[in-house]
Design a protein that fits this description.
Four copies of one chain form a homotetramer. The first copy, chain A, is an alpha/beta fold and 340 residues long. Chain A is built from 13 helices and 15 strands. Chains in contact: A-B, A-C, A-D, B-C, B-D, C-D. Chains A, B, C, D: This is Inositol 2-dehydrogenase.
Amino acid sequence: MNTVTLGIIGAGRIGRLHVDNLLSVPQVKIKAVSDVVVDHLQEWAASKGISVLTTNYQDLLADPEIDAVFICSPTSTHAQIIQEAARAKKHIFCEKPVSFSAEQTIEALRVVEEEGVQLQVGFNRRFDPNFKKVRDLVQQGEVGQPHILKITSRDPQPPSVDYILTSGGLFMDMMIHDFDMARYVMNSEVVEVSAQGAVLVDPAIGEAGDIDTAIVTLKFANGAIGVIDNSRQAVYGYDQRVEVFGAKGAATADNCRPTTVEVSTVEGVVKDKPLYFFLERYTQAYIEEVTQFAKTILAGEKALCTGNDGLQAERIAKAAKESFLAGCPVKIEHETVTAQ
Amino acid sequence: MNTVTLGIIGAGRIGRLHVDNLLSVPQVKIKAVSDVVVDHLQEWAASKGISVLTTNYQDLLADPEIDAVFICSPTSTHAQIIQEAARAKKHIFCEKPVSFSAEQTIEALRVVEEEGVQLQVGFNRRFDPNFKKVRDLVQQGEVGQPHILKITSRDPQPPSVDYILTSGGLFMDMMIHDFDMARYVMNSEVVEVSAQGAVLVDPAIGEAGDIDTAIVTLKFANGAIGVIDNSRQAVYGYDQRVEVFGAKGAATADNCRPTTVEVSTVEGVVKDKPLYFFLERYTQAYIEEVTQFAKTILAGEKALCTGNDGLQAERIAKAAKESFLAGCPVKIEHETVTAQ
Amino acid sequence: MNTVTLGIIGAGRIGRLHVDNLLSVPQVKIKAVSDVVVDHLQEWAASKGISVLTTNYQDLLADPEIDAVFICSPTSTHAQIIQEAARAKKHIFCEKPVSFSAEQTIEALRVVEEEGVQLQVGFNRRFDPNFKKVRDLVQQGEVGQPHILKITSRDPQPPSVDYILTSGGLFMDMMIHDFDMARYVMNSEVVEVSAQGAVLVDPAIGEAGDIDTAIVTLKFANGAIGVIDNSRQAVYGYDQRVEVFGAKGAATADNCRPTTVEVSTVEGVVKDKPLYFFLERYTQAYIEEVTQFAKTILAGEKALCTGNDGLQAERIAKAAKESFLAGCPVKIEHETVTAQ
Amino acid sequence: MNTVTLGIIGAGRIGRLHVDNLLSVPQVKIKAVSDVVVDHLQEWAASKGISVLTTNYQDLLADPEIDAVFICSPTSTHAQIIQEAARAKKHIFCEKPVSFSAEQTIEALRVVEEEGVQLQVGFNRRFDPNFKKVRDLVQQGEVGQPHILKITSRDPQPPSVDYILTSGGLFMDMMIHDFDMARYVMNSEVVEVSAQGAVLVDPAIGEAGDIDTAIVTLKFANGAIGVIDNSRQAVYGYDQRVEVFGAKGAATADNCRPTTVEVSTVEGVVKDKPLYFFLERYTQAYIEEVTQFAKTILAGEKALCTGNDGLQAERIAKAAKESFLAGCPVKIEHETVTAQ
């Protein structure tokens, strides 16, 4: 196999983003796209050279030319489609989270394992060159044994309340990225979480049953401790920082900015705000993510962000929510699903 | 009164540091120094123009020329000496902490209140221009309503185990500075703490019954949340950073470095490590601290860091230790001692 | 016209780079490529969807479907091909410099003017977002009337002596980019130059009759003064900085780095070196450059970097060389060629 | 000799600054101050513990207790007083420049040499820890053989036109510091200068016969080249930067700022402007300068910034002015006055 032929399930914002990025990956051919409504997508699909457009994702699973599918449909459909795709012997790229329920996720991963297909979960930040460098430095021992992890992750503006109502809540929808980042850079499982949360950005978020500001402390299996802070609204832009502190030093990844320009006037010295949001900040990460998916499929290798990675992040998110509600720390069992 | 005549009780490292700084304060005259042993101090005292050297601090309290005393003796003696000094109508500068016991501290503050003298507690970091600017920006509303506070505070190397044994432990000895900083920059009381701690730097610290690495989350009366991380050993130097994030933005104070020099070679681009430790980092803060003490005494004004500030920081430290031992959050009552 | 159909003349490193970038520009179709030898290019052209491959660039000029050509052949051929392409009514993108002789360049621009086609010269750095922002700030008056311009431009390693022998020398080959940048950010003509040069990197460069290190001061028509420094070898990477200082402040564009990661250890605090060389540093600028070419052609607008811009930069480079050889400042007439 | 007893000649701004700094130097005693008018200085001198106040500086030279004098009187008097002080066997600290005439300076240095006293010239910036580190790095070979020197030196606001009329002009009054810095960090003599100048800040400066903006290129005896830019008005504060680029890398000293605080809002990310002017920027350098003077006198060692250093900087300044007026480069003979 020289090329991976793909089907895309779900052509919303993230689905179309993946399509655009996949067009620049030489190892890939996009054959088909499915969505619940496709009429408005005809021109778009044609301009991308996509020959099949269907409302039934099972058409993609039934197509023997298709090697792998991207699951970009709503979270509630992920677990079911993963199982069907695996049974159809398709490799799978699935957006995060795999599901809102550990049981569903585990069941889906079992089928993936049984069928021997690859599953990559869409934690795009792992492919950001800044965070990847922090991880590499930690792995190479440059900071010594890790002692403290710090992650700051703040969105530039909150999503709509409608979105929040079906999002699974801040821990499952937003901080789940940071839980995965924590496991990724520390290369160790999270064994306990303790969550603080508040509604400080918008009371409507509180009325919707969610929080908009949170600090979660973590204990890792390797003995280290860590902390993540989240806000739904940093007015100065997307604030995405990671720091690992250890016995031999510290590695920090700071925000990325559109330019390096500084302006000095009588008012002060001003530099650019961070890149606005995930589309700007993680442009390169999104491209790298799908490129690596294609490469590992072609090479017959294991995905760089597996179903188990998805499961563990969900478990931490669920434990964080429990901790927040209970007002005390919650321990996490971290048994893994074998094959993934 | 144009000049404050001072007596210094305790001529250890911090006492002698204050003497050196006070010599550059024009509003001050140092008349006397007491310590448990003084023979080795004769030449030093003479070179500083100090005329009285005694082993009995009560000689200083009995001297009608002395307006104020600096209490730089061991913590265990603070509460007692504060009371005696207040009864003798001396204004008081006392090193932190006031005591290891809220009851003792409260009793001492009651006497201070009754006698109507001023008491300034030695939280030197309040006088650092970086942190003061963060506080001022917050007070002026530049970051809007505060949502998240982050303090990083890491020493370059751990103290001796002997020191640790009598230190009161990491929360009372080290993080107490950060608890005070939290109250100072947020201008709000801490109402709940949740502590994580570990022994990662040196097992001997654990054997001495203490920890060397900690993360503590805070809830403030104003609704904000915060987090402090401490380590007894940052091999790259004294890591002292503060960040306040709010509705309108964020203010961050970064580390100070000896020079601005950057060296670019084939190996990378290297800048200076942070200033090594508190003597280097807080040089200016220590001078400003004693200058402000003298100025407020002369002006008959309230101290800029009061006995109540000392008490509240101690309460938070105590609660943090309880939280660490209990493995769950601890709430803090924050009644204040009136006059202070 | 919805799409610009292109022919590429010259498929060396820069020609192939433009092809790759043009493939991501939706307004563009690449029909044909010519080079003096094409056998080794068959597979490459096929993979890019290029249908015509020829050793005769005049085939491209004779093709009525081709709207515009990219001239990426050796500098010595530029002026001649520009004229032929203009006579054939093709719009033109030409790599810098247009020629090594003002007379040849002027003659080429005259034909371009007569035929009414567009000519864009390949000063890619104008399309770098950092430098563009500096220019925009200057244009918007953010730094007030410009007083001082400073440009630092240092390559990571010198080219081969073979290259240097036919390069036209440091001023025409390397600093010409900075002369164009000077005119671009200052929006004013250079009226006098004074050059200092030295052979400090490699004696072989001196033996080839060139220099490898230079500082050139500039006087602008608007009264401002400026300075450019060049080195053929900055061992820490491609050093590309611009600063405009004026009555109301300064705007500076610093180097770009692969990541924002800083590593703090006992040795110091290390950040990334600048991006290695022009392919890494100006990735975005190269894409933007050809995108803007396509857009201005489609819109019937004037190129953003015209033949006159090419001519003026060449004149400054020539004057700088004269100044270096004569050891004194040289004035520059800046009559423009009208249509461009 | 354990202590250097000093007389201060001239109690203007810089004289009084030195007095304040000298009071913190334990190796020093200030006995006497002279100025042309002293009535207004009585209280000031008393507060500083200075016992002798006179209108006749020769009283200081005649006082056998005085070991050394600080010459802080107007430049026009320096050369004469140096000679008288040397004849009186006093060591000398003299503010820069030694004189406006090479002949006068050489004559003064000859007497200093004959009498065997030490003369330190007041180039305070040599004692700035940032620039000293750059020099040390260059000396230690960290950047390899130096190729390019860059100095930026811009004042926050121009002096009065009255001051400018007697200042000796921008090259002698302001850029002379940078000429000394150039020799200091490069450890090599300047053999040629080429000056560009303009009146861009204030036409009144031009009417006074001076310029307010300048760029001067330098050739060094070691083959390196360099450039200095000056402006009399950087509205954002005192801009003081040095960069040495060489075969193995570059060392840069950036501006110093009051705090490390950054404020991120919807408007941008703002940090402090540079420290306002020389009193703020060079506080530490001024103290170190006089401390080192006292130490070298006590140790019988050569001054760290000698009369010859003063002479060479003056020669470069004079050559720069000639170059500016003539519009072409000017070579500099750099014979040294032996003993200094």
